[in-house]
Design a protein that fits this description.
This protein has 20 helices and 24 strands. By secondary structure, the protein is an alpha/beta fold. The strands form 5 sheets. Strands 1, 2, 3, 4, 5, 17, 22, 23 and 24 form a 9-stranded mixed β-sheet that branches. It has an 8-stranded parallel β-sheet with strand order 6-7-8-9-10-11-12-16. Helix 9 links the parallel strand 10 and strand 11.
């Protein structure tokens, strides 16, 4: 009788292809799926999945674990939400290539764009690399609770080649472009999955300077894309504001056409231009119909800023009256804040020394909600409206909400994808034939955002096994085989013989996204927002159970992925 390492028995197999789920077993040996269906044989370990879903592990193609992967083995919160493969280095930011004199610049850029504190990076990054292949070699020696892959990011590449001229956003010379093209080829040949860049005014270093990649013109971007063409592999990832949709898309089409490499870009609904996403998707569809491999990366949830007394930021944090007590433990802080004289003082000092961005996301009370209302709060439930309903000023109403009970209230500002408190835009994006699910941003936005829970949310909110209308088989396909194939990882995302044994066993009836909480698990005592999940009976990476009902088993079978992977 055949002996396997692990058999998952009696589950409802949703195999990642989109086909209807069916009852059966999954047998695993040496990190690969060996048999699916009715499995005869014995195994060293066994999971009874009766009444549970058995799915491929989720493949998250938009994360920022570039630093975390150098100092940590567990890549939460993604690993808490069934993710078994992540692709980092998105948005053109990262840490390689880098000369020693440029380390501070790259850390300042990462802090400004992705909200990873510089003190954390200074303490945590080993800097045992200069070139991008060196960086991959360092990751090769490490083990994780999931597989990791990386893009070559544009900002460090540009600084490495152009130095101060890159920081000054000067145009690249032909020799600069030639050098970046060469380094892009070398990075992809060493194992990078591709190249990423940012053309967004929102992407700035801590000193306010724009990301160096913002200055790149069509010649530079196309030249780098041709480096991937020279290697004959790799994908392209772009984020842009699309202030001039035609001009931006003209550059993108040129990159895809001349390189022949697959390309995806962020597509969001933004309040300042609530219909621009339609224009972008129309152009993506036209390009796709022309045969260009262009996709939009979209999200099934509003990207929201979280704040509160238990989190890293709150609306009162920059007032002198709050700053005096900010160092106190929460319970002592609450006592101080409940003192009537301090309450009056802090409210009179509002908004304090908040930056423009902080003021927008922390005190825009007509667009801020109690997180207890969920990710899709109703019109009229914002802080300003609720305050008016009881005859209070919004800041005072929020102050009392945050200081009530144990100070555990969380504020939620849905920044994008929720204009008019309506999900129609994101539903249309998800339904489009030329989109991919992404934008979880795991590893980034440590103190403001926690969207790495998107995988769990998708199943809970949109699948017909949860509260939604999409067949669960469709949602699983979008989280697994679609994202895997989009970036060349053709060996995973499907439950079939020969594929990697990256799997989830899910109790859909228990599936839920937990409440955000501050977790002090970063170097130098740094904190970030975490978010747990319930309902994952088991998560399996390369045939080893890494988590059982949210608790780590101690197994760390995840490794660096070098380059595209062939299907079995």
């Amino acid at each position: 009788m055949t002996q396997y390492d692990l058999i998952i028995r009696n589950g409802l197999i949703v195999d990642g292809t989109g086909q209807r789920g069916y009852s059966g077993d999954v047998a695993i040996t040496n990190g690969r799926i060996r048999a699916v269906g009715v499995v005869e044989g014995e195994s060293k370990d066994q999971i009874d999945a009766a009444g549970l879903l058995v799915t491929p592990g989720f493949v998250d193609i938009h994360t920022h674990y570039d630093g975390h992967a150098t100092w940590a083995n567990r890549l939460g919160p993604s690993s808490d939400h069934g993710v078994t493969t992540v692709l980092m280095g998105n948005c053109g930011v990262g840490f390689a290539p880098c000369r020693p004199q440029d380390r501070g610049r790259l850390m300042g850029l990462m802090e400004g764009i992705e909200d990873i504190p510089e003190a954390v990076m200074r303490d945590g990054l080993p800097w045992n690399w200069e070139t991008f292949p060196d960086y991959l070699d360092g990751l090769q020696t490490r083990c994780f609770d999931m597989d990791v892959a990386a893009y070559l990011p544009h900002a460090p590449l540009r600084v490495y080649v152009m130095g101060d001229r890159a920081i000054g956003r000067e145009p690249a010379h032909p020799k600069d472009i030639s050098r970046m093209r060469q380094l892009a080829r070398e990075a992809v040949e060493a194992g990078a999955l591709g190249f990423s860049t940012s053309r967004s005014l929102n992407h700035r270093a801590t000193d306010g300077t724009l990301t160096p990649s913002y200055a790149a013109g069509a010649e530079e971007l196309t030249g780098i894309a041709l480096g991937l063409a020279d290697a004959g592999m790799g994908v392209l990832q772009i984020v842009s504001d699309f202030d001039d949709v035609d001009a931006e898309f003209g550059i993108i089409k040129r990159m895809a056409r001349e390189s022949g490499r697959p390309l995806s870009m962020t597509v969001l609904q933004i309040p300042s231009a609530p219909n621009r996403w339609k224009e972008v998707l129309d152009r993506i569809e036209s390009a796709s119909d022309e045969g260009l491999p262009i996709k939009g990366q979209v999200s099934g949830r509003a990207a929201g800023v979280l704040s509160g007394l238990r989190l890293a930021r709150n609306p009162f944090m920059r007032t002198p009256g709050y700053s005096e007590i900010a160092h106190l433990p929460l319970q002592d802080r609450l006592i101080a804040m409940r003192n009537p004289s301090r309450r009056t003082r802090i409210l009179n000092e509002m908004p304090g020394r908040l930056s423009d961005v902080e003021r927008y996301v922390l005190t825009n009370f007509s667009s801020i909600y109690d997180f207890a209302e969920g990710y899709e709060p109703a019109i009229g439930r914002d802080m300003a409206a609720r305050a008016a309903g009881v005859g209070m000023e919004p800041a005072a109403f929020v102050y009392d909400l945050l200081t009530a009970n144990d100070g555990d209230a969380i504020l939620y500002f849905p920044a994008v994808n929720f204009v008019g408190n309506n999900t129609a835009a994101m539903e249309a994006m998800m339904a489009h034939k030329d989109t991919l699910l992404g934008l979880g941003d795991g590893g980034a936005h440590c103190g403001l955002i926690c969207d790495a829970s998107l995988t769990t949310f998708m199943l809970q909110r949109w699948s017909d096994r949860g509260a939604g209308y999409m067949p669960v088989e469709h949602v699983i396909r979008r989280l697994t085989s679609e994202t895997a194939k989009a970036v060349g990882l053709n060996d995973r995302g499907v439950i079939a013989p020969g594929y990697r044994a990256d799997l989830n066993v899910i109790d859909i009836n228990l599936l839920a996204v937990g409440k955000p909480e501050l977790v002090a698990d970063l170097p130098n005592g740094g904190e970030r927002i975490g978010q747990k999940a319930s309902g994952y009976a088991a998560t399996i990476v390369a045939g080893e159970v890494t988590y059982r009902y949210g608790s780590p088993t101690g197994a760390l079978p995840g490794r660096l992925i070098r380059g595209a992977q062939s299907a079995p």
